[in-house]
Design brief:
This protein is an alpha+beta fold. It is built from seven helices and eight strands; from the N terminus they run αααααααββββββββ. The strands form two sheets. The protein has a four-stranded antiparallel sheet, with helices on one face. A four-stranded antiparallel sheet has the order 5-4-7-8, with no helix packed on it. The longest helix has about 50 residues, at about 100-145.
């Protein structure tokens, strides 16, 4: 009996490919006859796929535009020539425009310096975003792969698919949603822990994806989702789009 219970606890680790070869073999055989574990693995696998996308950061759009605009301004060098007359004419021309060339060089250097500073800030911002995303992935993965993690799945009244994974040992819950329509202007989706009828704020959801819920899940019997004004509310102001009972 204990072995079966241990196998039920491996759903998150299986979805993250974190099992040893013997564990993988035993769980694969168990999965063929356990519908509950199959549902949990499906939910964890979907969440893991979204987590992988969280650390994939494309180049910032302003940086791409700046590079492309500068490429258009780069001129090719003229072909070499042995003719002395064009060389003498070019030298005379350069002597005449010498002061203008110096001024233009100073202006160009200042412009390039400004662009370099801006690009440096963009790179640092991208690195900060990447570090933040990686930290979130580590938190999500810790909850999903915890041996005691339990997961439940449901749908919102608008048809979005949701799942909540909770680890009592880590005292954390992860909420994942797919198919969530963009919130209307001036509105945002807000998560709640339902403490036996008392709704407690648990964070905001801006779009499809996975979020670490804010607060202690140990006292909650359910998770709710409502549509609230931008920034969230201390208490729900609309009827729940979702009220998903947590495992006892």
């Amino acid at each position: 009996m204990k072995q079966a219970q241990d196998l039920h606890a491996l759903t998150g680790a299986f979805a993250l490919d974190a099992l040893t070869a013997p564990e993988h073999l035993a769980f694969t055989a168990h999965l063929e006859r356990c519908e509950a574990c199959a549902r949990e693995v499906a939910g964890f696998s979907a969440a893991a796929a979204r987590l992988a996308g969280a650390v994939s950061l494309p180049a910032p759009t302003p940086m791409k535009h700046a590079v492309m605009n500068r490429i258009d301004g780069v001129r090719q060098l003229p072909p070499p020539t042995r003719a002395e007359r064009p060389v003498r004419m070019l030298s005379a021309f350069m002597r005449r425009i010498g002061p203008l060339a110096v001024a233009a060089s100073i202006a160009a250097a200042a412009c390039l310096g400004t662009v370099a500073i801006w690009q440096h800030r963009q790179v640092e911002q991208a690195r900060t975003q990447a570090r933040s995303a990686q930290a979130q992935v580590r938190e999500f993965s810790a909850v999903l792969s915890a041996p005691d993690t339990r997961t439940v799945q449901g749908r919102t009244s608008t048809g979005a698919t949701t799942s909540v994974a909770t680890s009592a040992r880590l005292n954390k819950s992860v909420f994942a949603v797919t198919g969530l329509a963009p919130a209307p202007a001036g509105k945002t989706y807000q998560l709640w822990f339902d403490d036996n009828g008392t709704m407690r704020p648990a964070g905001l959801v801006h779009h499809d994806g996975t979020v670490l819920m804010q607060g202690d899940p140990s006292r909650a019997r359910a998770v709710g989702l409502t549509l609230e004004p931008d920034g969230g509310s201390p208490q729900p102001t609309t009827s729940p789009l979702l009220l998903l009972n947590l495992p006892a």
